[in-house]
Structure formats: C-alpha cells, structure tokens
Automatic annotation (TrEMBL):
Location of the Major facilitator superfamily (MFS) profile domain: 23-457
GO molecular function: hexose transmembrane transporter activity
Topological category with respect to the lipid bilayer: Multi-pass membrane protein
Pfam families: Sugar_tr (PF00083)
The UniProt record lists the keyword Membrane: yes
Source organism: Drosophila suzukii (Spotted-wing drosophila fruit fly)
Keyword match Transmembrane helix: yes
Keywords assigned: Glycoprotein, Membrane, Sugar transport, Transmembrane, Transmembrane helix, Transport
Protein name (record): Solute carrier family 2, facilitated glucose transporter member 3 isoform X1
NCBIfam families for this protein: SP
Top-level lineage group: Eukaryota
Encoding gene (name): sut3
C-alpha cells in the first residue's frame, strides 16, 4: 500500500456525488416512483387496451400487466448484468457509465411519451431499458469509485451506491405524491423524472479522470499517472501507487472469460462471497418491508394518507442511516459490521413476526412493530446495505474483478425479482411468518461472513486474496 494516509479531496468528493446523482439515484427512483400512481397507470392500461386492441381487460389481467410494468425493470437488470464486463473492458469504467446514462435517458423518453403514443409496449420497453442500464451501473459504479480512491477510502466511497439507492427511493416517493406529479395527468412525467438527475449528475463526467487501474491495464501509463496526480496531488503517493500498478498491470491486461473465473478454484470462495452477499441483501426482505409497512401503519389506526407519510419517514430514515456509511466504513472493520448487520437484521425480523402476530389481538403491539421496522432498517444499513456493492473490489484481483462484480450484480437482480414474485404469495399463505425465511437468509449471511470473509479494511489485496484460495478449507485472519 502506498505510504502515508490520504483523506478526502475536493475532486474525489465531487466525483462521488456527481456519479451517484447521475447513475445510482435514478435506480432507486425507478424502484419507488411507480407505487403511488399505480392506480392511474392501471386505469390507463385498461383504456389503452380497449382503444388500441378493442380488448376489455379484466381486473386480474390488469393486475398481471401492472406486475409486468414493475418486474420488467428487474428482468432488464438480470439481462444486462452479463454485458457489464464486456462493455467495461472496451469502454472503460467512465465510458460504461456514460452509456448507462444514455440508456436511462432513452428509458425516460419512452416512459414520458407512452401515454401520448397510447402504447403499453413503450412503457414496458422504457422500464426494460432502465433495468439494463441499472445492471451496468451496479457492476461498474462501485468499481469506478473504489479504483479512483486511495486504498484507505475504498469502503467510504463504496457506500455511495447504497446512498444513491436509498436517496433515489426517497426522491421517487416525494415526486410520486399526488401533490407533486403523482396525478392522473402527470404520472408519465413522474416516471421520466430520473432523467433530470442523469443530466445534472453526468454533465461533468468527461472532465473526470478514467480509472488509473484501467488505463494501466490498457498500457496507457502516462495517462494513468496524469489521472493519479489529479486525484492525489502528492507526487510521492503517485509514485508509490504507480509502482504497485506496474507489478499488477500485466495481469490486469490479460483477457479472462467468465468460464475461467467460474472454473478457477482460487476464485471459488471470493465468488461465493460476492454472489451470496448480493443475494442475501435482497432476500433479507428490505423490499418486502416496504410492501408491508403501510399495512402495519393502517392497522395501527392511522389513515391511509398518514400511513403513506409514515412509510416515507421510514424511507427517509433509510437514507439518513446510509449517509453515515462513509464514516462507519472508514473507522470500523467490514467483517464486524457485516456480522452485526446480518445478526441483528435476523433478530429484528424475528421480533417483527412476533409483533405482527400479537398485533392481531393486542392493538398496542402495532407500535412495537413500527419500532422493530425502524431497528431493522438501522441494522440493514450498517452492513447488508452497502458492503455487497463494493466488497468485490476488495477481494478480487483487477483482472477478474469486472466479471465477478457482474456476477454478483446478476444475483442481486435475481433475488430482487424472486422476492418480489414470491413474497406476496408466501404472505397470503403463511402471513407474517414469511419474514422468518428472510431472517434465515440473514443467518446464512452471518455464518458465511464469520467463517470465510477475511478483514479487508486497510489491507492490501495481495494479503487478502491468498486467505480465500482454498475454497471451503480457507482460514480467515
């Protein structure tokens, strides 16, 4: 590791904020914005089918179409994940983020004009393209920021992905309120609103440096040095990091396929960790919480309008806790935070199940459930929320890193889709006990971290990677 600690610089902070606003906030926005105006979208779907195809859709058919509008974004994420390493190798980290921004703008255009064109297909296409862009962002944005930052800030910049997602969810909730754009006339503008963040956030992106590691892997040594000097402004630090790059540049420049990554026994455990962390993040039930929270508030005696505001308050709490992530990740070990996050998430989900059952007979327990929801969100955001996005950058060598990040991204999208499809069914069959399944995944995340994840904070990759080379026989240190 380069000698001497280096803190935040104005340029690095500016890059982190802009890239987060222009790429990650639109993803969180897309998750949240369709919920409030869903009634108006359903009515429009019925009218469009009747006028274009002379087909009168039943209630169940409209429900299926509305589910498709929501879930096709996740399908786009699964389809786009395998392409991330291909584009990353050819366009670079910065180039793939530019491509993602362009795709989001195309997605916004489709959603903005779908009602004008009276085309359900255009709405579905817009959501699909948005999902494709989001997959590229998930696999690239954390890697780009980590590769720009000094090693001691890798965790701090890595949590900007979580900040962007939670911030986007809050903004999507605000924009879709009926006193903003969530009305019968304005809902297409609400769906397309993420384009504004892309334009604002990515406007200066061509002024930002490309990843020095990527430049070195392409043999552009002088450009890598210039980029590092802009970022560090410390010649001694730059010389030390360039020396490190020289050692690894030959390996970084080698082409590696997904088959080689999957078949390499030394990469088995890192790949399991990255994929499992992404899978557990979604299967822990964070999105199911948003599905259930409004019901808990209404059963507590609040009106639907107040319940929606309380649901927004939970989303805002989610965002505020994510904001302190950079401070936490710089000062606390990854392994400890991930274990605590998984353990307490499992505990609070289990307590939530107990509270939800008792709430049926003792109304006062509804307020206890609200407390458990808030505590779960706190537990989730100290580890499960941010760590899966950047842990791949800290345990994978540069050559297989883009493929590994894309692989983890696929499992994130797949788990999100799986939970979205299965949770309503499980909730209908077994009620609140469905959260026990989410708690079980949190326990799996705790055990995997406890047994196999080595500490990565303030450690060089060459010291971390050998600790996982023996697969399930690996020993952490």
């Amino acid at each position: 590791m380069a000698e001497g600690k280096q803190g935040w610089t104005t340029l690095l902070m500016f890059i982190c904020v802009c890239i987060t606003v222009g790429t990650v906030i639109p993803i969180g926005y897309a998750f949240a914005v369709v919920n409030a105006p869903s009634t108006f979208i359903r009515s429009w779907i019925m009218e469009s089918a009747l006028t274009r195809y002379s087909s009168r859709l039943g209630e169940s058919q409209v429900t299926i179409m509305m589910s498709a509008v929501v879930s096709i974004f996740l399908i786009g994420g699964m389809l786009g994940a395998p392409f991330a390493p291909i584009f990353s190798a050819r366009l670079g980290r910065r180039g793939i983020l530019v491509l993602s921004g362009m795709l989001i703008l195309v997605s916004c255009i489709c959603q903005l004009f779908c009602r004008m064109a009276n085309s359900i297909e255009m709405l579905l296409l817009g959501r699909l393209i948005g999902g494709l862009a989001a997959a590229l962002i998930y696999a690239t944005q954390p890697m780009y920021l980590v590769e720009l930052a000094p090693a001691e800030l890798s965790g701090s910049v890595g949590v900007f992905t979580c900040i962007g997602i939670t911030g986007g969810i809050v903004l999507g909730q605000v924009i879709s309120f009926n006193f903003v754009l969530g009305t019968e006339k304005l809902w297409p503008y609400a769906l397309a609103g993420s384009g504004i963040f892309v334009i604002i956030g990515l406007a200066p992106i061509f002024w930002f440096p490309e990843s020095p590691r990527f430049l070195m892997s392409q043999g552009r040594r002088e450009k890598a040095r210039v980029a590092l000097m802009r970022l560090r402004r410390d010649e001694a630090r730059v010389n030390a990091e360039m020396a490190e790059f020289e050692v690894t540049s030959e390996a970084e420049g080698q082409k590696i396929t997904m088959k080689e990554v999957l078949c390499n026994s030394k990469l088995k455990m890192p790949l399991i960790i990255v994929s499992s962390f992404h899978f557990v993040q979604q299967m822990s039930g964070i999105n199911a919480i948003w599905f259930y929270s409004v019901d808990i508030f209404t059963q507590s005696g609040f009106t639907l309008a107040v319940s929606l505001w309380l649901n927004f308050a939970l989303g805002f709490l989610n965002f505020v806790v994510a904001l302190v992530g950079p401070l936490i990740m710089r000062r606390v070990n990854r392994r400890l935070m991930m274990m605590l996050s998984c353990l307490f998430s499992a505990i609070f989900l289990t307590l939530l199940v107990v509270g939800l059952k008792l709430m049926l007979s003792i109304k006062e327990f509804s307020f206890v459930c609200i407390a458990f929801l808030s505590l779960y969100i706190l537990a989730f955001n100290v580890g499960l929320g941010p760590i899966p996005y950047f842990i791949g950058s800290e345990i994978f060598e540069p050559a297989p890193r883009p493929l590994a990040m894309a692989f983890g991204s696929f499992f994130n999208w797949f788990a999100n889709f799986l939970l979205g499809m299965m949770f309503p069914i499980l909730n209908a069959v077994i009620g609140p006990y469905a959260f026990l399944i989410c708690a079980a995944f949190c326990v799996y995340g705790f055990l995997l971290t406890c047994r196999y994840l080595p500490e990565t904070r303030n450690r060089e990759l060459k010291d971390v990677a050998p600790l996982m080379e023996n697969g399930f026989r690996s020993k952490i240190k």
